[in-house]
Structure formats: structure tokens, C-alpha cells
Model the fold of this input.
Amino acid sequence: MASSLISRQFALSLQKNLWLSAPGCRYVSKAAPKTQVEFDYDGPSMKTSVPGPRSQALTKQLGDIQNVAAINFFCNYDESRGNYLVDVDGNRMLDIYTQISSIPIGYNHPALLKLMSNPNNLSTLVNRPALGILPPESFPDNLTESLLSVAPSGMTRVQTMACGSCSNENAYKAMFIWYRNKERGHKAPSAEDLSSCMVNQVPGCPELSILSFTGAFHGRTMGCLSTTHSKAIHKLDVPSFDWPIAPFPKLQYPLEEFTRENAQEEARCLEEVEDLIVKWRQKGKPVAGIVIEPIQAEGGDNHASPDFFRSLRNVARKHGVAFHVDEVQTGGGNTGKLWAHEHWGMDDPADIVSFSKKLLTGGYFHKDELQADQPYRIFNTWMGDPTKNLLLVEVLNVIRKENLLEEVTRSGKALQNGLYELQAQYPGILSRARGLGTFCAIDICDDATRSSILLKARDKGVLLGGCGDRSIRFRPSLVFKEYHVHMFLNIFNEVLAQHK
Ligand code: PSZ
Done:
């Protein structure tokens, strides 16, 4: 099947461009020439409104088995290519949401199809190992070629995991274990430690905390959820740890125009972080770690300056608190760097950096000191999947060979400029355009208008996502070129014109 996909794509790339800018449209973004994206389609092509009849029938069928209220539509992953997701009704959409920001180099990239059709990789696909006890021979080399080749500055160790939430869950555990070992002077735990932990009591289960920020999203599992504060529905009815929550800076955009006001706001938040660390120590629930996203994604694409993060990292160091940077959504290249924290320009940016999504496997990098002192303290059956590392090696090769981070920076500029222009043209609808690379967002006047814009854009063949109370976020894959940006801007303009 994989090889038939490869041969078919050449035929598909010859298909006629079905997308045209609407006549009479005031704003027409200048078309950039299409560059070598040979595995891509030429534009959206819509046959039905979305979800179409086949999607609706499948939703009904699945509805007898699961809750389907969140399902948008069903997909045809065989036919999807590059920047285009094809649905089961034959609609082909320009995908600027990419499976919640988790497709690194587009759908069915030829390099990945080739890799998966190589018979030498079959046993990796078929036999999923319990990695913590029985890894395959190729595993150390594979980690070196994939994740370690992009390790954040100062980190030489990585632990793979299955998803973003379980990466953060285990990163929190690593911070607690590190903190208690420090407190015990690296001595063996006492008999009381060992017996009390068996019944969820102190001192074995200590009163420690993780400091997080208002608006943060770090996952929905039990531990992570105590540090997630983006939407009530994520948290409702689930018991939570009583841990400190510091204010995340509320900045004014464009950032360059409000440097003084924003610096003041960031200083206020940093002060609050230090206050909380002191207060929670006094309260008997010391902060063992701080967790933060380089750009708060689910919470509404909230930015903070490199200065803020550098100072925060120093606050953590000063108080003996671990610093965990959650790059689950920001990692993988969308910001124009493989890791968003690279924009801070630090040699020692963090103690732990967690990832998932575009990195295909979950996991976290960590400093040597954050390695658990004994086996089975950070452990579960799968602890990642070597198939994903195999794919990641190839993804990183493509990123390097095709200079995709430079491309992202270029497309990002075009996207940001286009959003500024549209914002000037539709001041009643759009505000607060912001972004780093193609990791962009814009606010819509209210939630109802946002929903209507998202649906109309989808019916015109553009897939976007929301975040925060009223933002639209842009999360294309790394093969989203300037050509695609202009195609998107023209369609978006048509949609906005209908809302004026
Ligand atoms: O609704 C949801 O559950 C969503 S929508 C987007 C996400 C989750 N993102 C996942 C995420 C993240 O953005 C950050 C910064 N940290 C952790 C996670 C959790 O990753 P997963 O979903 O793989 O468990």
C-alpha cells in the first residue's frame, strides 16, 4: 500500500489547481510562487459541507460505542498529502491545525513512507518492546540519532514516554524524587519513609508542590491536571493537589510597542513567583519544581519575553527549585527553532524539557541530577515506542535537508504580516495578532463569531483551531510555505468579509 501511495502522489501533484481567489474580494494576498512541495496538492477542494454525509454516518456508528461529541469529521489518511487533510467525503482541506499541532512534515511524507515500507523495519513495527527492560539492539544508536541530536543545551539524558501527559507526569515525579533526595542528603530512605508511603502518608509521601501558572495547560492526567488551568471543564469533579499558581504575564500586543508596560507586568509576576515559593515553604508544602510553557498554547497563545524566562530560570535556581519547560506544543520547529526556549538564548535553559506531538514520541530531557536514583522509580510497560524514534530520525533529516526551520521563519513572517494587515482591515473582528514563526494566533471579537469563522473557513477548505476564550490559533506543519500562507490569507479574507 505504501508504495502505491508514493507512485500516486506524482499523478496527484499534476492535478489542476482548483483553488481560486474569490472575485470581487478587496484583499488579495500576493501569490508567492509554489516551491518544491512535490508531495502536496495544489489547493483545497470541497465537495460537501463538513461534516459530509459519510462522516455523519460514521459518527452515528461510533456514537453507539463512544462519546462522539468532539469528533469534527472522519479522515481519509491514505489520500491526505503534505498540507492537505482529505476527509471521507472527498473534501480536501488546507490543514493549519495539523492534529492539534502534532504533524511535523505534512501527511504521507515520501521519506516516511519509504522508511515504513523498508522490510528491515518490519520487526520494529510488529514487536513493541517493554523498553525499560528489553530494548532492541538499535535503541541506543536510535536515541542518539534522533532525540539526543536535538537535545537542549546542557542536557545529555532523555527518557521516552508515550504521550505529553505521561511525559509531564513522570517529569514531576523526577523533580519530587530529586528534591527529597536532596533533603535527605542523598541517604537511603528511612524505615518510616518506606512504611508511611504505603498508606499515602508523610514523610514517605511528602507534602511537596509544583508551581504552575494561570492559564497553563500541561495535560489532563491526575498530577498534570493540578497544574492545568486553561478551562474549567478539564478539571471539574476531579480531585486536585492544592499547589501554588502564579500569574502568567498578561502582555499587550504587538509586543514591540508595549515593551515598558510588558516589562512591568512581567516583573509583577516574577515577584509573585518568589513570594509563593517563600510562602509555600513556610506553609510546609515547599515548591520542588516550576513548570511553564514557553508560549501558553491551550490557554490562548500567551507570550512572555525571553527576559521573563531568563529571570524565572534564575529564581528557580536561587531557591533550589527544579525548572521544567513544557515544550509539548511549542517544540518541534513551529517557532522557527526546534525548541521555543532557544529563543531565550541560554546555555542552561532548564532542568527538564518535556516534549511530544511533533517529536512523535513523548518524553523528557533532563539534567544528570534529575535522573532517578534507582531502577523502576520512573517506569512503565512501553516507555515510548522505537517505531516513533525511527520516524523521528527521518523527520529530523528532512528538517535539516530542506532547511525547514528557515522556511518556517519565512512563512511565519508572511503569516504575521498578513494577520496584521487583516487586523487593520477588520478592526471590529480581529485584534492582538501575535506569533513566533508560524506558531501564531489572533483574537476574534467574541466566542460566537470565532465559532462561525472556524466553521465557514472549514467549509471553504481551511482547517484552523481555537484556543483560550476567543483566539484562533495557527499550527501548520513545517512544510507550510509562503505559497500556502497567501492561499490561506485570501480564503480567510473571504470569510471575514462575510462577517463584516
Ligand atoms: O484538549 C486537550 O486535551 C488538548 S488540546 C491540545 C493539547 C491537549 N495539548 C497537549 C499538551 C500541551 O499542549 C502541553 C503544553 N503540555 C502537555 C500536553 C498534553 O499532551 P497529550 O495530549 O499528549 O497528553
Summary: Residues 121 and 446 are 50 Å apart (CA to CA).
